[in-house]
Write a structure and sequence with these properties.
The chain is an alpha+beta fold. The chain has one domain. Helices cover about 35% and strands about 35% of the residues. The strands form two sheets. The protein has a three-stranded antiparallel beta sheet with strand order 1-5-4, with helices on one face. Strands 2-3 form a two-stranded antiparallel ribbon.
Length: about 90
């Protein structure tokens, strides 16, 4: 992913924005968040985090089926939008 963010940085105009939509996932019953890793990689590529916003989001059809099969599975009902700026 670092190479992708570096490519975005190279191709964006100065003061350009990169918006990334991150959604947590569940692996073996544990919620995995990708926000912090994404921020770290984008900053390594040269971006500066401008805003981090959590918004409510309905689950996908796949997630609903998985939750129905596994009632103890954690429910994910939000997504995170990260706004970065090329300095």
């Amino acid at each position: 992913m670092l190479q992708i963010y570096k490519s975005c940085y190279r191709n964006l105009k100065p003061e350009g924005f990169l918006i990334v939509n991150c959604k947590d996932s569940v692996r073996k019953g544990v919620v995995k968040s990708f926000d912090d890793k994404t921020i770290h990689l984008a900053e390594q590529a040269g971006f500066r985090l401008v805003e981090r916003k959590n918004v409510e989001a309905p689950p996908s059809r796949f997630r609903l089926v998985q939750e129905k099969r596994n009632p103890d599975m954690p429910h994910i009902r939000h997504e995170t939008f990260l706004c970065f700026r090329k300095e």
